[in-house]
């Protein structure tokens, strides 16, 4: 029987990438930025080429190509492209089947609406359970800023589009980030979210937000500029740090309240039993946490909920909705090639350092003494969060570690917090029956004195929970660290220097951190101690 091999591609916009499924099993996925180290890279062809070179799959083996919109048609000339694009842009259909010219041959293809690709990957991580409500909220999709789907009786259906006011969408975060001076980059919205903890919401700002037309985000550009001018002037006049933080705190309050109320209405009207979140706004921890606390504990968010999940989402949609194949479950550690012994030894040799066998006691003692450890093992994590395969680790209790890791080594803004990681059993010892957070997408109120270097100004921390099955190396290291120090948490932040994508290869790790404050490198079963940096 011929295999069904689906190539998923996100070709246009930021966070492009590609993936490959064989009979519903994910073989390979790559985010272009991991290869190029350019954050949010749009060079989709690089990702496609890397995928083919890494898997050995021949172009002639591909039986279907799944594209998420918008599509850069120069990469694969799609038959009836203008008609398909218009149908999806209008929201009249979530996908269209056609053929495309790729790899020198004509191949069947499915073009999937950007919003539907987000919803599909969310359904997948939700286990394809019946009666799900999926809210997709982002800066801009193909036909909406926010869209709402149900998953019932194996069917994904769009039930609402742009039902939220401007201040409750990703558009608002991008706009406010720009107006307070952080630019238009895809990272800007996430950067400013941390500011809200440093101020209180302000009634005057609330009034300005409410007086701005609720449909500002869906107006044409000329009218948007005209109608939004009072808002623009007001925010740009907030020039001090405290004033900017207050604007963000107000936005966060209103964003959360509106999203909670909206989800409550739709859960009730559709009779849904679980809630899924997709799109860039699913990275907003205060809102995620409020939804889970105030509505239901059963909230699903995939690790690649932002546009880095578009290629996988398009392929999952094509398999499940068009081919009748339910994709097999996969974990978050599925991005790219695994680092191997030869890569590690060669990369170390080029830099004149020597790899030696991993010894947990050396690593734990270094962490306990205030050292910083770079951990790179196996395949990378899908999405923007470091989950223990491409992570910087440090003590969450040694004074000054947040400043050292975040500001000095990573060179991030001073107001941005760090997350921490715990074994799931220790998490429940501390937080009782609170739901776990394997993808670091919820925040928790931290007890006084607990993991202070990973606690934000508002008294919360973004905790990752794991066990031996999900990440054996890091779970074991946490156990050994607890035996050494009595502490159950470590700082866990992404393995990348300022302005660069998360490290992919051993060479990337050395490029970013050799001689830059890291005390010890762990590469799977190997480690490289930097005695000159010992504490």
What would your notes on this structure say?
This protein is of the alpha/beta class and 535 residues long. α4 (114-125) crosses α12 (310-323), α7 packs across α10 (241-270) and α14 packs across α17. The protein is globular, with a radius of gyration of 23 Å. Helices cover 36% and strands 21% of the residues. Strands 13-21-20-14-15-19-16-18-17 form a nine-stranded mixed β-sheet. The chain has a seven-stranded mixed β-sheet with strand order 3-2-1-4-7-6-5. A hairpin with an 8-residue loop joins β8 and β9. The mean pLDDT is 96. The chain has helices at residues 32-36, 44-55, 81-89, 114-125, 170-179, 188-193, 203-211, 221-227, 229-236, 241-270, 285-294, 310-323, 341-350, 360-368, 401-409, 424-431, 472-485, 506-513; strands at 5-10, 17-22, 25-31, 64-68, 77-78, 95-102, 105-112, 132-137, 146-152, 155-161, 274-278, 299-300, 356-357, 373-376, 390-395, 419-423, 443-445, 460-466, 489-494, 520-523, 526-529. It has 18 helices and 21 strands.
């Amino acid at each position: 029987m011929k295999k069904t091999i689906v190539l998923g591609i996100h070709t246009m916009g930021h966070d492009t990438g590609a993936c490959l499924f064989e009979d519903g099993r994910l073989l390979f996925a790559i985010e272009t930025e991991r290869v190029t180290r350019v954050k949010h890279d749009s060079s989709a062809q690089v990702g496609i080429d890397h995928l083919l070179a890494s898997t050995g799959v021949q172009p002639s083996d591909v039986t279907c190509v799944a594209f998420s919109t918008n599509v850069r048609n120069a990469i694969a000339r799609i038959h009836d492209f203008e008609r398909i694009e218009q149908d999806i842009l209008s929201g009249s259909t979530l996908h269209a089947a056609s053929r495309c010219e790729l790899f020198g041959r004509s191949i069947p293809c499915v073009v999937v609406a950007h919003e539907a690709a987000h919803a599909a990957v969310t359904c997948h991580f939700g286990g394809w359970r019946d009666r799900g409500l999926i809210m997709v909220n982002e800066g801009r999709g193909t036909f909406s800023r926010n869209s709402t789907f149900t998953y019932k009786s194996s069917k994904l259906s769009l039930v609402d589009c742009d039902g939220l006011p401007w201040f409750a969408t990703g558009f608002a975060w991008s706009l406010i980030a720009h107006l307070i001076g952080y630019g238009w980059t895809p990272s800007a919205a996430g950067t400013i979210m941390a500011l809200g903890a440093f101020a209180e919401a302000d009634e005057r700002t609330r009034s300005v937000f409410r007086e701005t037309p609720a449909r500002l985000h869906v107006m044409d550009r000329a009218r948007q500029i005209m109608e939004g001018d009072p808002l623009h002037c007001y925010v740009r006049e907030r020039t001090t740090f405290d004033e900017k933080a207050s604007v963000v705190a107000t936005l966060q309050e209103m964003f959360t309240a509106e999203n909670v109320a909206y989800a409550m209405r739709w859960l009730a009207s559709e009779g849904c039993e679980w809630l899924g979140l997709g799109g860039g706004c699913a990275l907003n921890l205060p809102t995620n946490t409020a939804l889970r606390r105030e509505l239901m504990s059963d909230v699903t968010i995939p690790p690649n909920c932002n546009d880095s999940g578009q290629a996988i989402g398009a392929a999952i949609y094509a398999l499940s909705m068009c081919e009748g194949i339910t994709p097999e479950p996969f974990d978050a550690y599925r991005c790219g090639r695994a680092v191997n012994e030869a890569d590690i030894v060669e990369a170390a040799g080029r830099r004149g350092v020597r790899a030696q066998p991993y010894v947990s006691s050396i690593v734990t003692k270094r962490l306990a003494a205030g050292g910083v450890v770079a951990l790179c093992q196996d395949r990378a994590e899908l999405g923007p969060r470091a989950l223990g395969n491409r992570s910087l680790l440090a003590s969450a209790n040694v004074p000054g570690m947040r400043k050292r890791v975040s500001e000095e080594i990573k060179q991030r803004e001073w107001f941005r917090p760090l997350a921490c990681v715990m074994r799931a059993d220790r998490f429940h010892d501390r937080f009782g029956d609170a739901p776990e957070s394997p993808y670091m997408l919820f925040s928790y109120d931290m007890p006084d004195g607990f993991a202070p270097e990973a606690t934000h100004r508002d008294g919360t921390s973004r905790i990752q929970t794991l066990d031996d099955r999900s990440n054996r190396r890091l779970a074991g290291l946490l156990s050994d660290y607890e035996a050494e120090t009595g502490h159950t948490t470590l700082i866990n932040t992404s393995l990348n220097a300022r302005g660069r994508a998360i490290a992919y290869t051993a060479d990337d790790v050395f490029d970013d951190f050799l001689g830059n404050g890291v005390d010890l490198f762990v590469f799977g079963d190997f480690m490289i101690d930097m005695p000159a940096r010992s504490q």
